[in-house]
Amino acid sequence: MKNTKDNACPMQKNEGELLLSYCAGSLAAERVAEVERHVGVCPECRSWVEGQQTVWQALEAWEVEPVSADFEAALFARIAREEKAAGWQRWREAWRRLLPGGLDWRVAAPAGAIALLLVVGLAVENPFRREQAEAMVKLEAREIEKAERALEDLEMLRQLEPLEEETRL
């Protein structure tokens, strides 16, 4: 694996999985020889392979602690307790996680009062109420009719103007 245009370094070609397969020992024998030759001459790949080998050795040396015999029973019991919890408790816990320090009643009480006033205000003075919309339409229709009558009157007056000019002559 020489660093030529045809056969560039795996790190430069974003082929890190080739080096990872080499470290895992899952490459074919002919490919292993190519990678070993390249790693011998490329400091970047050599450094990466050495780092991966360190990780693999640490994983092999790691010992998993045994799980207690009642782990599953305790886990299922906890899941059942959380499922039985009331919906409002879940919401309360979610808000507690969102708001650092919890929700203080000195903030919650005024916020609740404002929300209540908004709801009552919208119920009393609903801008989307049907009766108000219909009254607005009727009012607009009357104004349009008045404007049409005024235009008709102006048109009649214009028709009378030439008669006045003829009488002057």
Features:
mainly alpha; disordered N terminus; 169 residues
List the helices and strands and how they pair.
Elements lengths: L15 H9 L4 H13 L1 H19 L9 H14 L2 H12 L6 H20 L5 H39 L1
**Poorly predicted ranges:** 1-6
Whole-number radius of gyration? 42 Å
Structural class computed from helices and strand pairing: mainly alpha
Question: Mind describing the biggest β-sheet?
Answer: none
Give the count of helical stretches.
Answer: 7
- In percent, how much strand structure appears in the residues? under 5%
Number of strands: 0
Which geometry do the CA atoms define?
A: elongated
SSE order, as H and E?
HHHHHHH
Distance between the termini: 113 Å
**Helical residue percent band:** over 70%
Overall pLDDT metric: 78
Brief overview:
This protein is mainly α. Helices cover 75% and strands 0% of the residues.
Q: What does it look like?
A:
The protein is mostly helical. It has seven helices and no strands. Mean pLDDT is 78; it is low at 1-6.
